[in-house]
Specification:
By secondary structure, the chain is an alpha+beta fold. It is about 60% helix and about 10% strand. The chain is built from 14 helices and 8 strands. The termini are far apart. About 35% of the residues are buried.
Length: about 425
């Protein structure tokens, strides 16, 4: 009686499980943030979970029935045990936004195929599971092989997700650990207490959470460059204002000429290459963003690595220019967060970047020294006044310098937070 009640609960939970999976399939189809490959991966994962859930219902329904249903019992258990690791592989397939499968994923698929073949060949001997002549299921002597394959798939999914989240600079990648820990604990409970039948309900819950996690991660990305997008930048700068750090801004030199001469597709290639160079140089020391058009920025918490990262960025850009000969030069400048408004920090960084852009010679492509940045406590009046006089003397009309020419400098004026200005 008790077992029948438990089975009844399981059937109800399976019905709920199938409803949730159907809803997730519809949500996946309607998603605007997933590409075709990612949608296929989620569809396969949800379909596999639904199929295995139904197969588990079938095994419960036919177990102990007349021997004529023995073949159905064997087939259901074989597919259930064999396809379980495939759910994790489908989710790994989702994580890689590239169209081609990488070698690690191909190796994992080969392992899954070998496991399915081994499981099929082991059925007569009952190594992993067996179904007696009376149509009664029991675990085999080597049932642990299934457990090893299942755990290995979970570990592979965990590592792949963490690597991808780190590549995309996702700050919530630590949440991967409790998700996978939840699945491991649930699996251990299921192995210890097989009559509970909660495995695939928990896997469904995990897949939903995983869908939410991945969608949130991809919504923070710029589709062209793979860097974080402007919304992510605006959210992060609010924290940087309180905690301090450095803002580095980048601007592609003469980018309009690239579009006019080579076309917008080649212009996109340039932006993607520059974004890749910025990420390689700065990602370990800060968060990299494309804030719009040909403008990029980096938020760094540790200002001590700024010079080293700048040199690495120059090196990466020069190296890529050998392969993409029309890759333009990039000007950049920086400013520290000193508790003032984010726009004020951005204006100071832009000022340094434009001053650097102005000072560079046209024939110095790629020869980018690190732009000067005012440090705390430095006297800046003479530098600021000199720049203003120089611009006036040259009758510069470019709008990027209007804010400098129009900025009043009064005696005793101070820059935010201890930037003392000497009198005129």
């Amino acid at each position: 009686m008790k077992q029948a009640t438990m089975n009844g609960y399981f059937y109800v939970l399976t019905a709920i499980d199938l409803f949730v999976l159907s809803f997730m399939c519809i949500l996946t189809k309607l998603s605007e943030s997933l590409n075709k490959k990612q949608k296929q991966g989620f569809f396969l994962a949800f379909a596999l979970i639904a199929a295995i859930s139904v197969l588990e219902v079938v095994t419960l329904a036919v177990d102990g029935t007349p021997a004529g249903y023995r073949w159905l019992n064997i087939l259901s258990n074989y597919l259930g045990f064999g396809l379980s690791p495939g759910v994790c592989l489908c989710l790994v397939y989702v994580m890689d936004r590239k169209k081609r499968m990488n070698r690690w994923f191909r190796a994992a698929v080969c392992c899954e195929a070998c496991y399915l073949l081994f499981l099929a060949l082991s059925i007569p001997a009952g190594l992993v599971f067996s179904v007696s002549a009376d149509n009664v299921y029991s675990r085999g002597q080597y049932f642990y092989i299934y457990i090893i394959m299942y755990f290995a798939a979970i570990v592979y999914l965990s590592v792949s997700t963490f690597v991808t989240a780190r590549e995309f600079q996702n700050r919530s990648r630590a949440l991967i650990y409790p998700l996978m820990f939840f699945l491991l604990i649930e699996t251990i409970i299921q192995v210890t207490l097989p009559e509970l039948h909660v495995t695939w309900l928990c896997v469904t819950l995990l897949s939903v959470l995983y869908f939410i996690y991945c969608s949130e991660m991809w919504n923070q990305l710029d589709a062209l460059t793979g860097l974080l997008n402007q919304n992510s930048y605006l959210n992060r700068t609010a924290e940087m204002r309180r905690r301090g750090g450095v803002l580095v801004v980048f601007d592609v030199d003469d980018f309009k000429q690239i579009n006019d001469r080579y076309g917008h597709l080649q212009g996109d290639v340039c932006l993607a290459e520059i974004g890749r160079c910025i990420k390689k140089a700065y990602a370990r020391s800060g968060y990299c963003y494309r804030t719009g058009g040909d403008e990029f920025c980096v938020l760094m918490e540790n200002a001590n690595r700024e010079a080293q990262c700048a040199q690495e960025f120059v090196r990466q850009l020069e190296q890529r220019r050998k392969a993409v000969d029309f890759l333009p030069t990039v000007s950049f400048g920086s400013a520290p967060f000193l508790g003032e408004d984010v726009l004020a920090v951005k204006n100071r960084a832009d000022r340094e970047m434009y001053r650097y852009k102005k000072a560079r010679k046209p024939d110095a492509a790629g020869e980018m020294a690190q732009p000067r940045r005012f440090s705390k406590g430095e006297d800046t009046m003479s530098e600021f006044s000199h720049l203003r006089n120089k611009l006036l003397a040259e009758q510069v009309e470019d709008q990027i310098y209007h804010y400098i020419l129009d900025t009043p400098i009064e005696p005793g004026a101070k820059l935010p937070n201890e930037f003392a200005l000497a009198e005129k």
